[in-house]
Structure prediction request, 473 residues.
Amino acid sequence: MSRRRLTRWWRLQSLRTRLTVIAATAIAASVFLAFQVASELLDRELQDTAEEQLRADSRVLVASAERAGLAQVELPPYPGAGRLVRVVLADGSVRTPVGQPALPPVSEEAGLVARGVSADLVESGDSDDDGYLVYTLRAGDGAIQVARVADDSPINQFGLGMLLIGLFCVVCGALVGRAVARTGLAPIDRLTAAAVRVAHTRDLDADIPDEGGGEIRQLIQSINDMLAALRDSRQAQRLLAEDAAHEFKTPLTSLRLNIELLIRLDRRGALDTALPSESRTRLLNDLGTQVAELSTLAAELTDLARGDISDESTELLDLADVVVAASAQACSRMPDVEVALDVTSVWVRGRPAALQRAVLNLIDNAGKWSPADQPVQVRLRVQGASAVLEVDDAGPGIDSADVPRVFDRFYRADSARALPGSGLGLSIVQRVVDAHGGRAAVGRSPRGGALLRVDLPAVPIARLTAGEDTAVR
Prediction:
């Protein structure tokens, strides 16, 4: 199986299967490592024991050889099993017991021991059939060699036992891992079932019961927080729909009544006689005003419902340019309203279209209240680390009871009911200012009218002179 296919297979498996495989693999790796370490230790222990036995046997033979001489020492016939003995004389000739199997040839190192160059030597020699552990000890004018056939059966038996134990442990580990995964993931299963139930029933009021601890509790809490946010969002959508229906009702009713009146008079053929020219002109103007009001309301509802201020790219811009552009647009929409500008260049990081819409709404709001002979004053300055925009009018001002709700959606003071508007303009201003990390406030103008103030974070001049990149981020 290629690495890519193995990765794909792994990703397709459930978390329960992954935990089972991980547990079994971990146990198998642990058993294999334990086998390697234990085998190495056992092999060393067996070899040390065999060497000690060979040294003891060789010392007995050396004692006999020193009494009788190495060439005449008696070598009993080989009993058919046990140790192997060989006498190495100084001339290189050897003596072995009768019937003993042949040992590997005397090595060069063993010959050096026989010639007195070194005292003893331990060798492990392997042939095609058997392996030998040979100990050579200096004796007289030669050497005594004692050897044993290397027996791997204890290691093999130990390996077989470890293999069986390892397989058993792997199987048990897989079963235990499966059980642990099932138990550990039970809260996840219940959480999944609850989430599926919420998705099918659309019941956002059903909180998922808090159970478990640690990560499970955090996950459940996060999902409950998400459900609460969805409930708030759905409630906000419901309120928006209800408020929009309420706001649409008045202009639509007036528009419908005026149109029905025109239709009835036209069907009777009495449009010119029953409705004088002056009344007809006033009626048509009312129709135009109501259509414009509906269009404005629909546009503001769209802006408010979309909530896509963050989709616009952020730029480093001069807020004075935005204010001038918004003022020009306001004058084209309200030719009877004069706008007096007193602006200073202030650099901010923001979204130009959203900021221009907010400034335009502030000027539109002031224009509704400003007397014909009094201009709307728009001031922009730097104050500390903020860009301060103030828009005031010479109107009646805002009652103290209405101040806390000025920026609420669809809120209109009793004194503003007769004026055109939807009650959404200042709400959009609040949303734009919040998105830019600023603050909007309302107060009283020195001229007695309303003073709307917006504070936005300004970019220090030092950063601009240092060559800050003004490209779109």
In short: The first helix runs from residue 3 to 12. Residues 414-422, 469-473 have pLDDT under 50 and may be disordered. The chain is about 55% helix and 15% strand.
